[in-house]
Amino acid sequence: MFWNVGAVVNVVSTIPTAPSDSFETTPHESSLVEDPALRCECGSERANKHGTYDRNPHGREPVRVQRYRCLTCGGTFSPSLSYIKDDYWYPDEVRRLVRVVNAFTDASLECLQDICTVHFAVRPSDQQIRNWITEDTGEIVENDLPMCSGIYTYDEQYLWVDGKRKYRLLLYDDLMGAPVAEQAVDGCSKATVREFLTAALEDKPVFVVTTDGRSEYAEIVEDDLGAFHHRCHFHFLKNGEKKLRNKVFQSVRYSNAEKLHAAIVWSEFKSVFSARSYAAALRRFEAVLDKIEHLPSPVRTYVKEVMENFDKFLAHLRDEWVPSTTNNAERYFSHTKPTQVKRRFRTYEGVNSFLKTQMTVRTVKHGFISREASLARMRELFPNVEMKAVTSLFTETKKRYLWSRDLEAG
Questions:
Q1: DSSP element (H, E) containing 157
Q2: Which run of H or of E encompasses 126?
Q3: Smallest Cα–Cα separation from 393: which of 17, 5, 97?
Q4: Cβ–Cβ contacts within 10 Å for residue 171, how many?
Q5: Which contacts (CB < 8 Å, 24+ apart) does range 348-351 have?
Q6: CA–CA dist 102, 99 (Å, integer)
Q7: Pairing of strands 63-70, 47-55
Q8: Neighbours of 409 (CB within 10 A)
Q9: Under 8 Å CB-to-CB from 179, ≥6 apart: which residues?
């Protein structure tokens, strides 16, 4: 992945390693940790010393901790160390580094182990690291956005789970600039896609859904969701050019003159989708229709398909909020799991945890939500992260959005 390394360093460096009220060792015995407050869980401050015990956190020097007995309730208690949770072997900084590297890179479990070995001179097991980076999620991983716009893009990407090819379904909110829901499934059947979209959009507004050219998408969006289905013209033209090349240019059935004519008309046909207005696109398309009878049948089929569903292809010219392509979803895929990086997962739990982490990071970096909401989302991953570190992750587009909000608020 191509992340801003300086921003990642800021996230790590600005997370405090010890709170201000942390317990310090006594000046008389440097290895002994005492509790200056002497406060029991029952609220009493009356306690006597009751022996000591040793703690040996991995990657840290061993320390001796004072134990106390409460004179009110009779229970025993000890001070907590600022850099490690009670009953844990690894300090917080080790777990935090693992989570940061996992969130912002495509490092494997072995790479995470190597980083811990070099940086802290400890080597957690792969199961221990998996426990640190795995989150509990539902079958559908949903994003808790403050609101949804109703303008969505749907797409899918393949991935590998336990050596088998699976699919990653994505619903992306184009106006909010953040994913809405994701799910890892065995196959991409019509029933599976319908179930995913209806469940993800059950309590959300739905106006337009942009998809690629699979025929069943129109029925799902229009009949099951009651929304307008918009076709991605990038995929449509890409498939058309592929057919034009294979069925016309490489065929001996057509003369050179017919091939040249087909190329010229196809170029005019493509200009329909790059028009700046709906009226201009309509005029260009009418000009193409005058030449349709002289086109090879593979190209004529594409022109007729647009003629029958003109508004489905050109809705982005009638409404500026409708995305013309599924590029936002494709870009999200390339940022979180590039195709050239064949990241493999062992279980669906690992997949869902990966999707949840990347969803949070993407929403913080790109999503059009407030600074406070961004901080709250990032603290789901890194509880002690500060606002300064979070704002350094924002993209320029999000910074401009927040700046315009500040202007509106006065």
A1: strand 151-161
A2: helix 126-133
A3: 5
A4: 25
A5: 348/161, 348/184, 349/134, 350/130, 350/134, 351/159, 351/161, 351/166, 351/168, 351/184
A6: 5
A7: antiparallel
A8: 6
A9: 143, 170, 171, 172, 173, 332, 359, 362, 363
Q: How far apart are CA 52 and CA 29, in angstroms?
A: 13
Q: Are 278 and 318 in contact (CB under 8 A)?
A: yes
DSSP secondary-structure letter at 96? Answer: H
What's the token pair of residue 261? 């004519």
* Token pair for 62: 């061993």
| Residue pLDDT, tens place only, 270-287 | 999 989 999 999 999 999
56 burial via Cβ count (<10 Å: 0-12, 13-18, 19+): exposed
Q: pLDDT above 90 covers what percent of the chain?
A: 30
Q: What is the number of other CB atoms lying within 10 angstroms of the CB of residue 122?
A: 16
Residue 228 phi, psi dihedral angles, 5° rounding: -85, 130
CA nearest neighbour of 156 among 344, 329, 312, 359? 329
- Quote the CA–CA distance of 182 and 137 in Å, as a whole number: 11
- Per-residue tokens: 348: 């669906």
pLDDT tens string 219-255: 999 999 999 999 998 888 888 888 889 888 998 888 8
What single-letter amino acid sits at 406? D
Burial of 315 (0-12, 13-18, 19+ CB in 10 A): buried
Tens digits of per-residue pLDDT, 3-51?
444 444 454 444 444 433 444 444 434 467 776 667 787 878 778 888 8
- The full DSSP string for 4-68 is -HHHHHHHHHTS-SS-TT---B-SS-TTEE--SS---TTS---EEEEEEEEE--TTS--EEEEEE
**Helix (H) / strand (E) containing 230:** strand 228-231
- What's the first-to-final CA gap in the chain, in angstroms? 38
Give the integer Cα–Cα distance in Å for 110 and 304.
Answer: 54
184 residue type, one letter: A
Cβ-Cβ contacts under 8 Å for 152 (sequence gap 6 or more) = 171, 172, 173, 174, 180, 201, 206, 208, 209, 210
* Beta bridge partners of residue 68, listed in sequence order: 49, 77
Q: Residue 180 in 3-state DSSP?
A: strand
Residue 22 is predicted with a pLDDT of: 40
